[in-house]
Structure formats: C-alpha cells, structure tokens
User: Fold these one by one.
Assistant:
Number 1:
Amino acid sequence: MRYLTSGESHGPQLTVIIEGVPANLEIKAEDINTEMFKRQGGYGRGRRMQIEKDAVEIVSGVRNGYTLGSPITLVVTNDDFTHWRNIMGVAPITDEERENMKRTITKPRPGHADLIGGMKYNHRDLRNVLERSSARETAARVAVGAVSKILLEQLDIHMYSRVVEIGGIKDEGLYDTETFKQNIDKNDVRVIDESIAQKMRDKIDASKKEGDSIGGVVQVMVENMPVAVGSYVQYDRKLDGRIAQGVVSINAFKGVSFGEGFKAAEKPGSEIQDEILYNSESGFYRGSNHLGGFEGGMTNGMPIIVNGVMKPIPTLYKPLNSVDINTKEDFKATIERSDSCAVPAASVVCEHVVAFEVAKAITEEFQSNHIDQLKAQIEERRRLNIEF
C-alpha cells in the first residue's frame, strides 16, 4: 500500500489516492467518516472545527461498496473555501488584484514551517507555505488510516488510542488490553482515568486564558497482530522504525517510543526484557510487554504499544518574536488560527497513521491481491506461533 495527499488548508478540497488495497474489501463512506469526525473533536479545539464538517466522498476504486483492487480516490471538500475563493483560487490574477487582497504574509511564525519553507521554495508570500504545511493535511491522513483500519478489522486486528498526558497532568494507570479498549472516547480529553479528565480541561482552559498552548503524550495500541511482520535484515524493513517515522511526521509530534519507552533507560534489563513462555493453546507468548510488541524490528504477537509526544501548538494568542522577511524588522508573530490544545485530536491522528503503517507492512509481507487471499495467509501465519 502507498498513498499521496494533495490540497491546501483553505483550498477547495483535500484529495487522497491510495494504491494497494486488496480487492473485494467492503468499504462504505460512512465508516470512514466516523473516524474523520473523531479527529475534529476533543476539548481545546478552535472555531474552525465547528465550521468544517469533514466528510469523505469516494470517487474511484470502489464499486457497489467493494474495492476493485485499483487506486482508491477520496475527496474531502472544504466548506469554508467560499470565503477564500479569491485568495486561494487557481486562476491567474493581476498585480493590482494581488495588492488589493492584502493577504500576503511576510511575517513567519516561530515553530511553523513558514520561514524555512519560504527559503526552500523561494516564496515571498508565506501563505504558499503555511497552506500546505498546515495540520489540516492530517484530515487526509485520517481518511487513509480509516481505510487501513477497515482492512485490519477484516483480519481481526484492532486499533485503539488514548491520551496519556496533557500539559504535565498524567494518567499513571497501567491498563490491560481489555480495559484499554473498553474505555476509549468516554470523555472529551480521551483519557481513561476519569478522575483527571477535569484537571486536564482546567489546564487547557487556563492555557487558553493566558493566550498560550499546551502539548502532551498519546498512546496507540494494536491488538492481535500476527507474529514476525517486519524484518531485522535491513534498517528500513524494521516495522517499529517505519512506525516511528510515520508518527514523527505528524504535525507537532516530536518524539515516539514503544512499550515502556524512555522509562527503559531507568531500569535494569531483568525488568525490561519480556520473558518467553509457551503453552499448547496460545503457542509462544511473553510474560510481559515492556518492549511494546517488537523484537528485532518484528512483531512478537504481543499488542503493539506506540507512544507519541506532541509539542504545544506554535500558533499562539500570546505571540512570540519574529522578523519580517521583507523589512527584516522585529515584530510580534501574527495569529493565523489556533487551538489551545489539540492532543485529544492528535491521538486520533496518531492512531490512523499507525494503522496505515501496519496495513502497509501486512500487504508487503503477504500476498494481498484480494481480501480472501490475505485472510488465508494471515491465518497461516498465526498458526506459526503454535506450530513452530
């Protein structure tokens, strides 16, 4: 599987083309849209999430509800484009029209791609950078992940995500798989420990009142993954490495770990390595899951646990210092749009990014021309864990 996205934040639409989805997989737009709407929720989101109602239209690759094996095209229309038609239109405009728009951006915001993107692509109007570098693009990636999740569900592989920390307020709970998956989305900060949910809301409110923003930590779980997906033979075939790249490619994500993650640095090996056990019913399994489901870049049959760190959103109502690219004068950075906290929504994005990487690895590992062929091979691999 592979995909490309296109589209700008205030452009007419986001477009995704996904290739490599097996044929005969049942897909409905409403199932994708259920995931899309999750991305727009969460405490701390800004006003634009109330304007845009992201919904996917499937325009190719699916016939009568089933995939054809050919590329799938998904379109997300930007309802707000009506107000941006003159600024973001495709047709050429005169210099006078450009001047009258008065929307040229020459003042880069700290923490955004504005300045460096302008340097790289020689844009004197930084809107040409920020429109594409915007986190709006994650809507398209959630659509890809939603298709991936539909595929994974057919293989009895399940995805879940939650918030672990917001602004230093942490959910210290260690949850088994059943508790994890049964407590998703029970509140608007997506935290399992209900007792700290209000503390997180209060922290978000305080940050917004101060014109600031806060980040946090999210966690994704993949349940019932077959063993030995990925490989140790080359660096770029290690599945945990590929998931890590996918996670840190999400806007504002600055760190990723698996299982115990950075806590592993504090403990002796005897407390971190997962002991290997065996019984005739389950086959090989581990007595713990400190390593987050990976050994040697390959899945070991335990749940995959991915932790992602999101920095505070860089667009602030309490703007920081910057420099105008034309006048070279200091100024206070302008506000384009801002959420005070997007960590709950980011957990949804992270879940879907991981879903794609897992689905991609599976379609590479096994023959996947059509869904029945893939199901049969997955079942054969699961028997390996017992019969090896």
Number 2:
Amino acid sequence: MSNESPPVTDGAHTRVLIVGSGPAGYTAAIYAARAGLEPIVIAGLAFGGQLMITTDVENYPGYPESVTGPAMMEDLQKQAERFGSRILYEDATAVDCASRPFRVETDGAHYTGDSLIVATGASARWLGLESEQRFVNLGVSACATCDGALYRDKPLAVVGGGDTAMEEALFLTRFATQVTVVHRRSELRASKIMQSRALSHEKIDFAWNSEVDEVLGGEFVTGVRLKDVETGAKRELDVEGLFVAIGHQPNTELFKGQLELDDADYLKVQPGTTRTSAEGIFACGDVADPTYRQAVTAAGTGCMASIDAERWLAEEGFA
C-alpha cells in the first residue's frame, strides 16, 4: 500500500487527530480532510483493521463484483489522502486525553490535536491454535455476516455458547447444509430465546462438552478434530468452514482510566452521537460498537465522528 501523503514530522499538530484506520478511521479522515481540517491519521502498523484479513467483501455498497478487504482499505486510504489526510503507519503507544491539545505518542515521536477521534476497532477473540490461524480466510472466519454466503451448501461449525454464537449459527443456516455448534459445556450461556431458536432449528446440532483441538485441511478447511473436555476422547467432524464466535475485545487499552468504558470495555458514547466522556474526543467504529461490527456501520460512525469533531471545533473557536 503506497503512501503519497506529505511527511509529518515529530511534534506535528492538527485540528483533528485520528487514532486507528479501517473503515471508521479512513472515513473520518475523508470527511475531516474535505472540511479543510488536514487530519493526521495514526493508522498503526497493522493498518486497515479486521478487513485486512478478509478475502471477499460482498456486502459493502458500491462494490457490485465484491472486493478484497485489503483492496477496499487501499481505496479508502487513497481517497483520504486525495483530500489532504496525512497518514502515518505507526502504532500509538500512549494517549493523553487530559492534556490540551490532546497528545498521542508513537515509538520515537508524538503528535497533538485540538480534537481526537478514536477508531482503534476491536479484535476477534481466537482459539489460539496454530492451525486456526493458518486457515483464516481459507475456511476459518470470525464473522458469519461477512463470510457466510461464501459457504453455500457446505457443512459448517460454530464455536461458542453465547448469544453471538447462536446468532452466527442461525444466520449460517441460510447457506449451510448443516451447522454444528461446538461448546465446551453441557448447556448454553445464550439468552433463553436464542437458545430456544438454536436448539429447535432442524439444521443445527450440538457437540457438547467439546473443544476444537485442531483445524484440518490441505488448501482449505476439510474438518476439525474435537476433544471431549471430560474424557479427553477425540473425534473428527467433517466441515468446510469454522466460525469462531467467542467474542471480540475492543482495543481500548490506551484509554482505560481516561475515558468511560462499558462493562465489556467498549468506549461509551452519548446516544445518537460519537461524543465520549471527554470533551473534544469522539469514538467511531467497532471500538464503540458491540452490536453491529460491520464495515458499513463503522464507516457511517466515522462520518458522524468527523462531523461531530468539526462542529465541536467551531463551537470552541478552533475552526
């Protein structure tokens, strides 16, 4: 991914400082740049967010033939730079939300902003298997809404026992021949209504007291090896897709003790806005969204955050 933005020196200041990239951060940058605010984006070394590990995106408006996640992120990056966004491929190592202007540190540099937009996203929780990571986008996914349609007429498995896992399993029944829910306990943690829907669905069965011991396959996933957590017995399950639904972890470590978080560590925003608990700091995308976690909703809140920041700057006399 090329970077045609002009160089930004240590200590550079901007009216809008954006931490994080992906659809939320890049969209915020596009809107801020078009408003003449010349934003600086601390995109991170792993820029582009979760879409950088997504092969085909078919549900984002404007891409009728689908697009790879990295290609879409490159389009958004180029669009942001076209209007004057300055994008830095550095990781934020510290953020000072109490200083004015706000200060973000990276390895060996720091940048300041009159306003701050947080778009650091959330990371899917994985099982921690080497074989799981080897097959990401080759049969292993953490998002049924994103990838489910790619597995039409195939047997699939979902790992998890909460509402998210049941939602994923129910969604996948639209495409799969059969969905097996793998859960390490003998009963679900999901809400009663979600349990009822999943347990009564003819296409869903359950591997109780089981965990995935290994993801099997050659070029693509062909099955999983399950381990009984009580007896240690192992068996193989023939599936062509494995969906890991054991939750997401919002990337809010830098903001703990500085901004208000909910019980799951997502940034809290005022309803109908992107305003956080601190004046002049706005949050967009998955870092503040435990519900939808889609590229298009992230982009929408990125737009909102930029407009909120622009209006706040004007009210405070910065712009």
